[in-house]
Amino acid sequence: MQEQSQAPSLLSVRDLSVVADLADGPRTIVDRVSFDLEPRQILAVIGESGSGKTVLARALASWLSPPLRIDSGQVLFTGRDLVADPAHARRLAGREIAYVGGNPAGALDPTMTVGAQLVEKLRAVRADMSAAEAKAKAIRLLQAVHIPSAERRFHEYPFQYSGGMMQRAMIVDALISDPMLLIADNITQPLDVTVAAQILKLMRELKDEFSTAILFICSSLPVACDAADRVMVMHKGRVVESQRPAALVAHPEHPYTRGLIAELPTLWQDRPDPRQPPAGQARTAIMSVKGVAKAYETRGKAGRALVQAVRRVDFDVFAGDNFGIVGESGCGKSSLMRLLTGLERPDAGQILFEGEDVGTAPASRLRALRRKFQLVLQDPYGSLPPQSAIGAILEEPLKIHRIGNRAERRERARAVMAEVGLPASLYESLPTGLSAGQRQRLNVGRAMMLEPSLLIMDETLSALDQTEQGKLLDLFERLQAQHGFTYIFISHDLTMVRQVCSRIAVMYLGETVEVAPNDRVFFDPGHPYTRALLSAAPTLEPRRYRPEDCLMEGEPPSPIDLPPGCAYAARCPHAFDRCRAENPALLARGSDAFAACFLIGQAAAPAQNKEMTDA
Questions:
Q1: At 188, is the secondary structure helix, strand, or coil?
Q2: Is 68 left (phi over 0), alpha (psi -120 to 50) or beta?
Q3: What is the rounded CA–CA span in Å between residue 115 and residue 134?
């Protein structure tokens, strides 16, 4: 359905088509797309990977490069056709029309401070502005996007920013030239739910404060409905539907839209608790984490300091389990992953894998242990060597561990390709031609080559759209049934964790603040931070926890300068004096649930790791 505005629009797109000039002829990527966007309006564009939404965004931002080109149509910006006048379109890019992508770490120069880059951009588009004026404006915008201590952060480098802060800095970079149109391309997909909720709230504030129109490209229908005034659905390069969010969800008109809504996983509606063992069945811990801590030394103008990345982490992972680890960006999930896999050694505590301490094992023994646990990383592009053939990538672990001869390694690689759904014809191909979903299948296959008992998935699905995530989750379930794998899912995606994990650990500022079965976490959380995460989760369901009651503002305290007492006290709506003076240990909430919160009650006993194992 195409619905046109009667009032003059800031942006009017008419029958826009984009093609890719390939060796076998041109292929249409965006097919006769039309829509209007008015000032102070947010239009969300939703669709699965390959629907053409990112190509559309880049076409509007004048960022297309060969083999992509605009084939036909009009892009009227304030009444002037940018397709007919590409020189004018290039002058507007980065000034009146700004673009923010979903990879902020790759968009900033790591050798320059964030503030210096903002000032450089502003003075490039406003030559009449002095350095002092540009700095003042940059700091004002950093404050407007809720960067804490904006004047100090102005002088910091990108690596000193968390993922959420980096994304806000990129929004400042886009807004620095006072654009009339902001194109936000998947800016919330790599972020955890609380930071994503803050970014969406920020977008709504900015469109009113700066009279900015926003084109919001998105892969999540619940996120799109939460953020936008209108939602436009794309499928195979075409617009198949455009409605207001409430009408789209209540009365979807196109079969593709109805399919998207039907496939959405739920958080609280009736569903079985995944992979729970039968009552009374004894469980064996394949990995036990006991009081683990890790600090990193950093140097700055004030001298040396210690970043407390991981502290007081306790949990058990049982054989055949799907164990989830969730938390905000900067909570220590990735640092913990490096400790669990033996990439780094903990400063304190134990990581026992099948009874052996990974943290103290000599290098030769750790190498042997790694045959039994494997890691699958987040980035489907950066985690694969682009110049190696797919077969060689799969065979490499066998070569490292000196397993089999050439023929046996080839046979094993081909068998694994079949298991993960990669055609045998790709054996000699490079991974550069694979989609993101196929690349992650290859990553999973590489991890499977050594027949491990434990797979650690570090944000493995976060770069994929809803459809691809569903396919990979089906694959994980099938492989687990065939091989008896135990999974650890490290993720910010609560919907995915709800689908597949039987038990969940919640991390905040380096600590485990809650460990509990799936249903207990979602229906009866014991820690206020867990409720805050759930209140921010994107969903079309009625919310069990209201953001206005639970959601915290701002960033966590600095891990360099931790406050006394509970680290969450400054953001907790229920904190009292004891919370600011003492840091609570994990307290038992029944037989198999634990939370680090004084609100549980004085009678609760501190959890011991042995109790968690035996529960």
A1: coil
A2: beta
A3: 10
Max Cα-Cα span within the chain: 75
DSSP string, 481-521: HHH--EEEEE-S-HHHHHHH-SEEEEEETTEEEEEEEHHHH
For 344, what's the count of Cα atoms within 13 Å in the CB-facing half-sphere? 16
Can you read off the two tokens belonging to residue 435?
A: 């989609």
Cis, peptide link before residue 557, omega less than 30° from 0? no
Per residue in 95-141, pLDDT tens?
899 998 877 767 788 899 999 999 998 888 888 889 999 999 999 88
* Structure tokens given for 450: 């050594």
Specify which residues 457 forms β-bridges with. 376, 489
Euclidean distance between CA atoms 173 and 434, whole angstroms: 32
Token output for 13: 């797109």
Share of residues in the chain with pLDDT > 90 (%): 53
Residues in Cβ contact with 159 at an 8 Å cutoff, skipping those fewer than 6 apart: 110
Place of tokens 């298991």: 419
Calculate ∠ Cα 272-274-280, nearest 5°: 95
How are strands ordered across the β-sheet holding 230-235? 97-100, 181-185, 213-218, 42-46, 230-235, 238-243
Print burial letters for 99-113: b (CB count within 10 Å at least 16), e (below 16).
bbbbbbeebbeeeeb
Q: Which residues pair with 68 in a beta bridge?
A: 20
Distance CA 422, CA 150 (A): 48
Residue 22 binned pLDDT confidence (cut-offs 50, 70, 90): confident
Q: Which of 313, 419, 431 lies closest to 381, judged by CA?
A: 431
Phi, psi of 444 (to 5 degrees): -65, -40
CB 478 within 8 A of CB 487: no
Q: What string of H, E and C letters represents the secondary structure of 34-86? A: EEEECCCCEEEEECCCCCCHHHHHHHHCCCCCCCEEEEEEEEEECCEECCCCH
Query: SS3 for 316?
Result: strand
Residue of 271, 356, 334 lying closest to 507 (CA atoms): 334
Nearest alpha carbon to residue 285 among 488, 80, 113? 488
Q: Do 68 and 275 meet the contact criterion of CB atoms below 8 Å apart?
A: no
Distance CA 540, CA 358 (A): 42
CB count within 10 Å of CB 477 equals 16
| Position 440, amino acid | Q
In this structure, how many other beta carbons lie within 10 angstroms of the beta carbon of residue 253?
15
Can you list the positions of beta strands (E) in 301-401?
303-318, 322-326, 348-353, 356-357, 373-376
Asked if the model's pLDDT at residue 610 lies above 80, the reply is: no
Classify burial at 125, counting beta carbons within 10 Å of its beta carbon; exposed 0-12, middle 13-18, buried 19 or more. middle
Strand pairing category for 373-376 and 356-357: unpaired
> 536 near 544, Cβ under 8 Å?
no
Backbone φ and ψ for 357, nearest 5 degrees, come out as -80, 110
Decide if 75 contacts 81 (C-beta within 8 A): yes
Element (H, E) at 29: strand 25-37
Q: Are the C-beta atoms of 481 and 333 separated by less than 8 Å?
A: no
Supply the angle between the helices 163-175 and 114-125 in degrees, to the nearest 10. 20
pLDDT 10s digits, 232-280: 999 999 999 999 999 999 999 999 999 989 888 888 876 555 555 555 5
